Amino acid sequence: MQQNSKGVFLRLMGYLRPHFSTLLLALILVLVATAGNLLRPIIIGRAIDTITSGGLFSTIVRFFLLYIGLLILATVCNMIQMLMLQKLGQSIIFQLRQEIFTHIHKLSLRFFDITPVGRIVTRVTNDVETLNELFSTILVTMVKNVVLILGYAGVMLFLQWKLALLSFVLLPVVFLLTRLFTRVYRTTHRITRTKVSALNTYLSENLSAMKLIQIFHREPEKRHEFSQRSEDLFRSNFREIVVYGTFQPLIYFISIVSLAVVLGFGGRLVLGGTISIGTLYIFTSYVRSFFEPIQSLSDQFGTLQAAMAAGEKIFTLLDEEPAIRNPEHPKPMPKPTLGRIEFDHVWFSYDGEEWVLRDVSFVIEPGQTAAFVGPTGAGKSSILNLIGRYYDIQKGRITIDGVDIRELDKDEIRRAVGQVQQDVFLFTGDIRSNIRLGNQDISDQEIEAAAKFVNADGFIRKLEQGYETAVMERGSTLSAGQRQLLSFARTLAFDPSILVMDEATANIDTETEALIQDAMERLMRDRTTIVVAHRLSTIQHADRIMVIHKGKLREQGTHQELLAQNGIYKKLYDLQLREH
Question: Is 495 helix (H, G, I), strand (E, B) or coil?
Answer without folding.
Answer: coil
